[in-house]
């Protein structure tokens, strides 16, 4: 009945993290720890300040593919498509990295596990192992992109805001080239555009989407109007928002998951027309 017993069993498999709403017993008995990345641990947060300075103070091109090593004694930051012999990526202790490229924007990556930490498509339900891994990843990424007055240098604030705007504006411009579309609250979307365009210094915060659902909290309201009550984003943007801003209760809907019945016909038709017009335009979008 003691959690320390189950923690020791998980630790034998090199798992040192768990979702705060789950117990070590639940994690171990789910047998999902074998699918978790065993290279994550709390020491990753100990080097956060130095890694933030290393990234946000650098000049980064929109088309580059960069990797930031997260090992505590390594200051490697370079292009991922080049074989830099000065960076011991092949060594077991240098397996965790942060990816920064048009298609991999601030993704936590494990070279040993060969996977993006915490990503399991856009399934609403996570098993115990992926739930813990996703929580760890999101906590780390959100700390990485946030200026903390009590911990960070004052000069970092300007750098973080400026580089985040560049990253998120670039993401906004290419988001519909590669993927399906997802529905987000219009007010949140407006706040996000105001931030990345420089009209506001305030980040929009967690995406709730609570106004888009019926009273049950899970059924999307078919009477809502595109451009008035909701906007569309691409899969790249959704994955970024989930990690950096967070989505309350996972309430975000893909247009592919809307019910194919009479109640949703008009809504789906308008979305399809919008999609065809967007594809036909084939030019870079700008923020008005």
From TrEMBL:
The residue ranges crossing the membrane are none
Mind telling me which PROSITE patterns this protein's record contains?
DUSP (PS51283)
| Ranges for domain DUSP | 158-258
Select a single GO molecular function from the record's annotations and give it: cysteine-type deubiquitinase activity
**According to the lineage, what is the superkingdom?**
Eukaryota
By its UniProt entry, which SUPFAM superfamilies does this protein fall under? DUSP-like
- Gene3D superfamilies linked: DUSP-like
Please identify the protein, giving its name as recorded. Answer: DUSP domain-containing protein
From what organism does this protein derive? Parasitella parasitica
């Amino acid at each position: 009945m003691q959690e320390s017993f189950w923690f020791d069993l998980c630790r034998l498999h090199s798992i040192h993290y768990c979702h705060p709403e789950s117990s070590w017993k639940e994690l171990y008995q789910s047998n999902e720890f074998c699918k978790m990345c065993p290279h994550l641990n709390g020491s990753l947060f100990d080097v956060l300040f130095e890694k933030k300075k290393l990234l946000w103070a650098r000049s980064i091109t929109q088309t580059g593919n960069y990797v930031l090593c997260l090992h505590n004694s390594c200051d490697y930051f370079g292009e991922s498509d080049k074989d830099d012999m000065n960076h011991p990526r092949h060594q077991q202790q240098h397996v965790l990295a942060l990816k920064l490229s048009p298609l991999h924007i601030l993704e936590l990556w494990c070279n040993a596990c060969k996977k993006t930490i915490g990503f399991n498509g856009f399934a609403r339900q996570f098993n115990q192992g992926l739930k813990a891994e996703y929580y760890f990843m999101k906590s780390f990424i959100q700390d990485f992109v946030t200026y903390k007055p009590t911990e960070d240098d004052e000069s970092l604030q300007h750098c973080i805001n400026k580089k985040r705007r560049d990253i998120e504006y670039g993401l906004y411009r290419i988001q519909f080239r590669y993927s399906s579309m997802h529905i987000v609250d219009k007010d949140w979307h407006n706040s996000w555009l105001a931030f990345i365009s420089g009209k506001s210094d305030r980040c929009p915060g967690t995406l709730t989407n609570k106004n888009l659902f019926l009273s049950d909290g899970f059924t999307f309201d078919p009477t809502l109007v595109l451009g008035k009550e909701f906007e569309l984003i691409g899969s790249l943007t959704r994955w970024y928002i989930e990690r950096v801003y967070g989505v309350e209760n996972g309430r975000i809907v893909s247009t592919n998951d809307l019910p194919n019945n009479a109640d949703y016909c008009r809504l789906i038709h308008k979305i399809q027309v919008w999609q065809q017009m967007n594809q036909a335009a084939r030019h870079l979008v700008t923020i008005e």
